[in-house]
Amino acid sequence: MKRPIYGLLTVIIFGIAFSRMACDSDDPVSTSDEFEITRYILESEDGKELYTTDIFPAEPFYIAENTQILYIIDSSKRVIDIDFLTSGTNFYSYDNLPVAEADVIDEFTGNAVKLVFGDTAGIYPLSYTVTRTGYFVKLYDDSYNYRGWRFWGYGTGEMDPPGSFSNQTGTVFSTDPPETLAVAPRWRYFEKNQIVTLSVGDSLTFICDTAASVFTSVGGGAVVGHGTVLEGGDYMTGWRVSASEKFYRLIGIDMPWEFKIDTIYISIDPLVIEIDTSLIKSNSLFIPFKSAP
Known about the structure:
This protein is mainly beta. It has helices spanning 5-24, 33-43, 45-50, and strands at residues 61-62, 67-85, 99-116, 119-138, 149-155, 164-167, 172-174, 179-180, 188-191, 197-199, 203-208, 213-217, 223-227, 229-231, 234-240, 248-254, 258-267, 272-281, 285-292. The chain is globular, with a radius of gyration of 24 Å.
């Protein structure tokens, strides 16, 4: 006997509704804490914005008066290394909360093209490693979304000595993370709730003791580069905060690179020497801020 068509439609409708409820549910889908922290970094809006791999300018940027660099990234590899700590003693008035530290390590490879007066003056193999850290606290039990883990703060590299940012309304913040816990774990980080908020149109100035380039995100997911200029003993640059659809945005500080020089002997008689120079960068940092209309 055939099933009445209205009965079949009822089953289909309830099946679709149940499927949507399951997809929209905040219930955890895994029994692994590591999986859930990784999922937060890769899938949540906060994670995708703070740990984005769209961090390089698509156009050349100045590193000297007549010299530009263009990074051409061919490939990238990401490793997320999570360290669970059992002690969160006196963590912000909480006692013995589970805490975790997730190192997000992105390794980019490609080429750096050096331009002098707009003409190509050299092409160097490029290896560029960016390490950012997420700090997590387990505030709730396993029945909550992400198994109760909550993102607490963001870490990046540090300058020595640090650089500073300021705007026309008197907001000043440093490249150094402002938070240091007095007890274990001794994290240095930007606490999520204390990340500085900048308004669209803010005129921002960066000052540091060494030559550096600054990467800033603009609307549409694009990134632009700004070179610093030596003024009165300090290196400085400035720009305006542009409108963007993102809430969390990054300011990249592109530090001077390290050269790796390999000398290859092609022949002894006659003497032929080939010098292979590549660029290795691993100390750049990416400072977070919140974007407000």
